[in-house]
Write a structure and sequence with these properties.
The complex is a heterodimer of chains A (about 350) and B (about 250). Chain A is mostly helical and about 350 residues long. Chain A contains 16 helices and 2 strands. Chain A has a domain of about 240 residues. In chain A, strands 1-2 form a two-stranded antiparallel ribbon. In chain A, helix 2 crosses helix 14 and helix 9 runs antiparallel to helix 12. In chain B, the strands form 2 sheets. In chain B, strands 6-7-8-3-9-10 form a 6-stranded mixed β-sheet, sandwiched between helices. A 4-stranded antiparallel β-sheet of chain B has the order 2-1-4-5, covered by helices on one side. In chain B, helix 7 links the parallel strand 7 and strand 8. In chain B, helix 3 crosses helix 5, helix 3 packs parallel to helix 6 and helix 5 crosses helix 6. The chains are: A mainly alpha (about 350), B alpha/beta (about 250). At the A-B interface, helix 9, helix 10, helix 11 and helix 16 of A face helix 2, helix 3, helix 4, helix 5 and helix 6 of B. Chain B: InterPro entries: AAA+_ATPase (IPR003593), ABC_AA/LPS_Transport (IPR051120), ABC_transporter-like_ATP-bd (IPR003439), BCA_ABC_TP_C (IPR032823), P-loop_NTPase (IPR027417). Chain B: Keywords: ATP-binding, Nucleotide-binding, Transport. Chain B: GO terms for molecular function: ATP binding; ATP hydrolysis activity; L-isoleucine transmembrane transporter activity; L-phenylalanine transmembrane transporter activity; L-valine transmembrane transporter activity.
Chain lengths: ~350, ~250
């Protein structure tokens, strides 16, 4: 079988499996497991959105959670039912009071507005490289947090933002995940994706072959922001109520950990990272409540799961510094060994 | 292409003073001079990596001063770098493809939808890259990671990549550095082949006198940022100022 045929087959299998999980799981599994699958899929969207700039373009953003927060609040404001808006957000400008959008259009608007925000933010910031862009994007995250807390007419300030209809179901999230993977895979494995990786490897050489460095970075940043905004909307409609600190450093750290652990230059790596971290922390969380094996009782050790998780991260970084997948894609048999993986192995020898 | 009165100073240090040169079509011209004489500064100015304090650079009668590097490359000026600046994590073929796609651009919507136009342009890009890999003798290495290549192959890959942008003017910054005398001979023949096949004008900055003398039809000599002479290899070899610049005062 040719490489293309194998990949096509793989994509078909993945889509069918995804659809079976999306529509079948709620009938078979308990709510607890459905919720875990939903959160994995949702986080996968967020981490994939992050991988576009952080992994493929070499712009290590610490500010994407600002886009997720923006998407969540925008979508929330748009979709709270009209009657409740009066009570919850009495000081909203009149035109926002007058209507409320269904889930899908609210999510699309959130994605588009977040992308526009990324154009404004990215235009000055994408000139920076290395640590500087990380710190600057973190500054953006802090600004978003402060704005969310202080724009209380729109966001209820530091109080819980509530009343968002709970519409994020597993099929919705799996559908958006499929779209995210599809669009990102086509972008990353295309001439544009090559330009992104060229910019990551060497900005000077990239401009010397005619690549607009700023333009390439900005496009990657803005597309990532679009999917972050979409993910934020899904998050908002999953939680129903949240506050500005829901979208702050804790979420940033957890998404970046998943990305780095899974492998920064690989789409499947990002998903693998999300699955590993999510499942591991669920398993450890149930273990830390204490358990008994025969006569041997392990007492509850609350907090131990975090320690074990941290320890595992350290081990992965020591033994697989490029993450679990490095920048290879998981393609079951037609796995392409690429680039930096070989390179690091070469250096080890 | 020509430069007139080109001057560049870094703070007080004048790296290039009142530089002028006019390039003829399809010629191979050498720019030589001791370290610090302004050769690389000249390349950086022409390709827009730094801006001159004064003077003009014209390409086919149009000034290119102030344009971004990517715009200058699109106008048909390509360069290689001293040492090597490959995309280390990409394969040999991808390095060349990344440059070749400049002449076969695809938009964002095409990239996601992948219609006929996308497939045609990607195929055209690949054809160009394959042709250059073949010319440079890198076809067997196409799948290897660029950073893993032997040094001599890396130098040829860098030339292939520059050529893939479809230039009219090719600037080679010390292409023979680190090559042995046999590899240097092969390189000289290759540069001539490139000129003949693609009709490009080639400017070579080099320390290696053997390469320069064997390859170039004209040579310009720089010392401490100033042009001290221009001429054929024979004229330059006999020029007293050149001997002075290289050997010091007698």
């Amino acid at each position: 079988m040719s490489r293309e045929a194998r990949i096509t087959l793989l994509v078909l299998v993945a889509v069918v499996a995804g659809a079976v999980v999306a529509f079948g799981a709620p009938h078979v599994l308990s709510d607890y497991f459905v919720r875990i699958i939903l959160l994995i899929a949702l986080n996968a969207i967020l981490v994939l959105a992050l991988s576009l700039s952080n992994g493929f373009t070499g712009v290590f953003s610490l500010g994407h959670v600002g886009f997720i927060g923006a998407g969540a609040y925008i979508s929330g404001i748009l979709s709270i039912p009209v009657q409740q808006k009066m009570a919850l957000l009495p000081h909203l400008p009149g035109f926002l009071h007058a209507f409320s959008l269904p889930f899908l259009p609210a999510t699309l608007v959130a994605g588009v507005l977040t992308a526009l925000l990324a154009v404004v933010v990215g235009y000055p910031l994408m000139r920076l490289s290395g640590y500087f862009v990380s710190v600057a994007t973190m500054g953006f995250l802090i600004i978003v947090n402060v704005v969310l807390i202080n724009a209380s007419d729109f966001t209820r300030g530091a109080r819980t933002f509530t009343g968002v209809p709970l519409e994020t179901t597993l099929p919705w999230v799996m559908g958006w995940l499929a779209i995210t993977v599809f669009v990102l895979a086509r972008l990353v494995y295309s001439p544009f994706g090559r330009a992104m990786k060229a910019v990551r490897d060497d900005t000077i050489a990239a401009s010397a072959v005619g690549i607009g460095v700023l333009r390439t970075r900005l496009i990657a940043f803005v597309i990532g922001a679009f999917f972050s905004g979409v993910g934020g909307s899904l998050y908002a409609h999953y939680l129903g109520s949240f506050s500005p600190n829901t979208f702050y450093f804790a979420l940033t750290m957890s998404l970046i950990t998943m990305l780095v652990l899974g492998g920064m230059g690989s789409l499947t790596g990002a998903v693998v990272g999300v699955i590993c971290v999510s499942l591991l922390s669920e398993v450890l969380r149930s273990v830390e409540r204490g358990f008994t094996i025969g006569d041997f009782a392990v007492p509850a050790l609350f907090g131990a799961s975090q320690i074990v998780l941290g320890f595992i991260f350290i081990l992965v970084m020591i033994f697989r510094p490029k993450g679990i997948m490095g920048d290879r894609e998981l393609t079951f048999g037609s796995t392409q060994r690429s680039a930096t993986v070989n390179q690091t192995e070469e250096r080890k020898r | 292409m020509r430069t007139v009165g080109l001057t560049k100073a870094f703070r007080g240090l004048v790296a290039l003073r009142d530089h002028s040169i006019e390039l003829h079509e399809r010629e191979i011209i050498g720019v030589i001079g001791p370290n610090g004489s302004g050769k690389s500064t000249l390349f950086n100015l022409i390709t827009g990596f730094s801006q001159p304090n004064s003077g003009s650079i014209e390409m086919e009668g149009r000034s290119i001063v102030g344009l971004r590097t990517s715009q200058i490359v699109a106008m048909g000026i390509a360069r290689t770098f001293q040492g090597s600046r490959l995309f280390g994590s990409l394969s040999v073929a991808q390095n060349v493809l990344t440059a070749a796609q400049l002449r076969h651009p695809v938009g964002a919507a095409d990239t996601v939808l992948r219609g006929r136009r996308y497939r045609e342009r990607v195929a055209a890009t690949r054809q160009k890259a394959d042709e250059l890999l073949d010319l440079m003798g890198l076809t067997d290495q196409a799948g290897r990671v660029a950073a893993d290549l032997p040094y001599g192959d890396q130098r040829r890959l860098e030339i292939a990549r520059a050529l893939a942008t479809g230039p009219q003017l090719l600037l080679l910054d010390e292409p023979a550095a680190g090559l042995d005398s046999n590899e240097t001979k092969v390189l000289a023949a290759l540069i001539r082949t490139i000129r003949d096949r693609y009709g490009v004008t080639v400017v070579v900055v080099e320390h290696d006198m053997d390469l320069i003398m064997a390859l170039c039809e004209r040579i310009q000599v720089l010392a401490t940022g100033e042009v001290i002479c221009v001429g054929t290899p024979e004229q330059v070899r006999e020029h007293p100022k050149v001997r002075e610049a290289y050997l010091g005062h007698a």
